[in-house]
Design brief:
Layout (H helix, E strand, L loop, with lengths): L1 H10 L3 H12 L5 H5 L4 H24 L5 H12 L8 H11 L4 H16 L7 H15 L1
Helix pairs in contact: 5-8, 6-7, 7-8
Length: about 140
């Protein structure tokens, strides 16, 4: 019995069988059954646009969430602490912060140096995010 099935559906699988299989699977994908139910074209287009928009928003949210490293998040917290909204390099941020608060120069430079090592080196220092967190707390306390 198995040999007969193998012969029929694998060895002797003809072009007609392929076309029949394709038609079987393409029928549910056809939109003719929707039109036969009396649904107008604009309703169908609206529903498709809404569904596509929902999937697009979900896709974008998944891609955007969680993309920042912990070091980058801490760097952004430092920027927001001092109200810096411009896109600046870490060294430029250090300059702006030390101009605003000269007493924090050493701590901010240490934070920025650790951020650069953590963010851009192949092997970041151990406990670097913890060190950055403690430095950021010190900066916020002194501010």
């Amino acid at each position: 019995y198995l040999k007969l099935r193998w012969e029929r559906y694998v060895v002797q699988f003809s072009r007609y069988d392929q076309i029949r299989l394709l038609r079987t699977f393409s029928r549910p994908l056809s939109l003719h059954w929707i039109r036969s139910q009396g649904v107008r074209g604009w309703v169908l287009a609206f529903l498709l646009i809404v569904i596509a928009s929902v999937f697009f928003v979900i896709f974008i949210k998944k891609r955007m969430s969680g993309k920042l490293s912990p070091a980058s998040r801490l760097f952004l917290k430092l920027k927001t602490t001092f109200g810096i909204r411009e896109n600046l390099t870490p060294l430029e941020v250090s300059e702006v912060v030390t101009k605003k608060e000269p007493g924090l120069k050493k701590t901010v430079e240490e934070f920025i140096e650790l951020y650069i090592k953590t963010r851009f080196s192949r092997t970041p220092p151990k406990n670097s995010t913890y060190q950055m967190k403690t430095l950021l707390k010190k900066i916020k306390e002194k501010k």
